[in-house]
Amino acid sequence: MPALTLPPFPDDVPTVDLLIIDYELVKHGDQHEIDRLWEAATKLGFWYLKNHGADEEANAMFEMGAETMNLPMPEKMRYEQGNDGESFGYKAAGANAVDETGTLDTVEFINVSKNDALAWPGKVHRDYPSTVNARMDSTIRPFIQKSLGINMTLLKVFNERLGLPEGALASKHTIDAPSGCESRVIKNPPRHDATAEAKQAIGAHCDFGSLSFLHNRLGGLQVLPPGVTEWKYVKPISGHAICNVGDALSIFSGGILRSNLHRVVTPPKEQGKYERWSLVFFSRPQKDAELRALTEQSKIIADAVASSDDPNKFNTGQSAGAWFARRIKNQRIANRTGPETWRASRGTEHNELLASQVTAY
Predict the structure, then answer these.
(1) I want to staple 342 with a disulfide (CB 3.0 to 4.6 A). Which of 67, 90, 100, 123 is the partner?
(2) Higher pLDDT, 199 or 108
(3) Cis before residue 121, ω within 30 degrees of 0?
(4) What proportion of the chain, given as a percentage, has pLDDT over 70?
């Protein structure tokens, strides 16, 4: 991806204040920093992560993504993810709905399975474009391994704070088991009219999995903090990843860890004139993991579920794989039959109507 001088993030749009967590301190057991991580994960579910050591790997992934997006469309479509509930592969812009009215998304992306990257040159799930294969060893596997190490370190902290037996969360995320874990490089086109209303690139949602490890260079990510009706931007900070809790981890914890509603719109103001590139690694439970609160392993979690207004919501009756496939399949526009299809793609979100009514700024 060619180097560009990008305009600064504007200072006159609403932003959310995220805690900045120092990964090195967390990794070495600094209790004050772990307390701050816990605060971020339980109150909003989003935080910045600095000193994670993955910038070099992330830059190489952006290059791989640009090489892949530059392939001819017929070549990319040979590796399209399809409509059967699988996420790995290429997704063209307009393949997904962003809301229950069927508005089309504007992003294209390439997803690479953790299992395929670690098994390379073997194959677990599927084939990929030549640009992906050429960088599997040098770029994709190192990024995925680094991201896995970071997310597993954070899971270990949460495991202890939740009062779970050692390794309980790790046992739901074993490295070799088939899972929905994947890297994703995302491209969103520029908005040529800087005065136009921000357009949803990815609709309001909570993430499917356990932890997300995001890198971006322009604004566009917005969160809806608890108790407010106005979307707020997450300001990109150089050298800082953005991390968040997903549905699976929230369910495992009985809602103690927060999976928060967020979306992606075109970047604000002058930044909107540029392509928006982002990169994320999604840690997700293995496909056969039962997606329910771990009440029998933690009194803390059991008490949280018992005091919930709806304890049943923490027992999905599905495996992680089935939960994931349902959500992927029903957001595909090719599978749409009406508003009910979009609703069937939802996870722990309980503010869909609210999300459709609030403004972009």
Answers:
(1) 100
(2) 108
(3) yes
(4) 93
Find how far residue 172's CA is from the centre of its chain.
18
Contact 72, 150 (CB under 8 A): no
Rg, C-alpha atoms of the chain: 19
Q: Which residues contact 265 (CB under 8 A, 6 or more apart)?
A: 198, 199, 200, 201, 220, 222, 231, 360
Distance CA 143, CA 153 (A): 16
Mean pLDDT of 299-324: 95
Q: Is the pLDDT of residue 34 over 70?
A: yes
Cα separation of 144 and 282, whole Å? 9
Whole-angstrom Cα distance, residue 9 to residue 28?
33
Would you state the structure tokens that stand for residue 319, as one six-digit string? 């495996």
Dist. CA 17–CA 241, nearest whole Å? 14
CA torsion through residues 113, 119, 120, 125, sign: negative
The residue among 182, 1, 208 whose CA lies nearest residue 81 is 182
CA distance 190 to 276: 7
313-350 residue pLDDT tens = 999 999 999 999 999 999 999 999 999 998 888 887 64
> Would you say 60 and 86 are in contact if contact means Cβ atoms under 8 Å apart?
no
